[in-house]
Design goal:
Elements: H1 3-30, H2 34-63
Helix pairs in contact: 1-2
Length: 64
């Protein structure tokens, strides 16, 4: 695998993770109630899904 593509996937993974955290915090700031507190682990996991997938692709391509 080319190095540029490898670093592109890793960078995309980090950016997706940071945007997921930002969206999670933004959701809490706008309307905090008990439902968001209960559902927060699920919401956080959904927002981190794309970052985990991109990281998995990067690790898979790096080992090939």
């Amino acid at each position: 695998m080319k190095k540029n593509t490898s670093y592109l996937l890793l960078t995309a993974s980090v950016l997706a993770s940071l945007s997921g955290v930002a969206l999670f915090v933004f959701l809490f700031v706008l309307d905090f109630n008990i439902y968001w507190l209960i559902l927060s682990p699920v919401i956080f996991a959904i927002y981190q899904g794309p970052a985990v997938y991109l990281y998995w692709l990067w690790k898979k391509k790096k080992n090939d």
